[in-house]
Amino acid sequence: MKAVVYKDPNQAVVVTDREIPKLHDHNLLVKTETIALNPTDWKHVHQATAVDGCLLGVDFAGIVEEVGPNVTKPFQKGDRVAGFVNGGNSYNKDTGAFAEYVLAKEFTLFKIPDTLSFEEAATFGTGILTVGQGLYEKDYGLELAMPNEPTKVSEYVLIYGGSTATGTLGIQFAKLSGYKVISTASPKNFTLNKTLGAEEVFDYNDPECGKKINEYTKNKLRYAWNCIGSPTAAQICADALTTIEPGARYGGIGNVKFPREDVKHTETLAYTGVGEDFEKRGRQYHNNERHGEFASKFFDIARTFIAAGRVRPHPVSVRPKGLAGAIEGMEAMRTGKYSAEKLVYRVSETT
Length: 351
What we know:
Elements: E1 3-7, E2 11-15, E3 27-36, H1 39-46, E4 59-67, E5 80-84, E6 101-105, E7 109-111, H2 118-121, H3 125-136, E8 156-160, H4 165-176, E9 180-185, H5 190-196, E10 198-203, H6 209-216, E11 223-226, H7 231-240, E12 249-253, E13 264-268, E14 278-280, E15 283-285, H8 289-307, E16 316-319, H9 322-334, E17 342-346
Parallel strand pairs: 8-9, 8-11, 9-10, 11-12, 12-13, 16-17
Antiparallel strand pairs: 1-2, 3-4, 3-6, 3-17, 4-5, 5-7, 14-15
């Protein structure tokens, strides 16, 4: 099959003779229709988390080709599905989304509703798992009320990075959970954030951004989720959070030190929900069944809202050249040449 693989040093290349992964356990073999890019994809290449020969890519959509012997969810051959895999994993070179076939675990897949195209569906995988962990998972996120059991208490949540692919989903799910959502973005994306459910949006480039959020919430903001992961973003969240209310919580993507000791803080790492060993940032992670169980539960919840049209996909930009185009897209992301849209590629268009 055709696939994008990591090649030393720091290269992603398209190969045409990769073996199709062998089916086993709780996996499904999916014939890939579309793939979507995430920042983690180029980081696997340029920050040396992959090893030579690793399949790359995490987000995809396609059609079920085979169902593994121990799969418990009601998937069957021919189903349209989308999801997330741990591409670029040095512990498992044969798992990656950027290929003509993907070996995916059942609990990080969902059936695509008839209302969604393959191009739209491919944008959801990483975002669903990251939002689920970051906003809801016990001991691992903000522990907000679940979207299918919304809170009756009117309270603010800050989504920092509201125009990122994860941020747009975070806004929608936090709103479904009954919270008053505020976000940060550049002014050109204020309308997008408000359309998705943000009550107010603040310019993250404003030197007084954190102070203004704190004033807007009357110093009562108890929840902040950082979708960017930079130290600057963490500081703005720290400035925005309450200094008078008990139980303030901060969650972030990426291993960034949070500057307030009086606030409970957690880190989101979606790969822990895949159910396999891996290494990130020089640290080894082992299969954690609890994370896998939560991922399975949250993917089912998310699909319900997506099918009902209550959660919309991030804005999509379909680019040409299939798998080869994805390599160009990773470089565009790495060098900051795109914003506020998800880059999507049709695998059949691979040149």
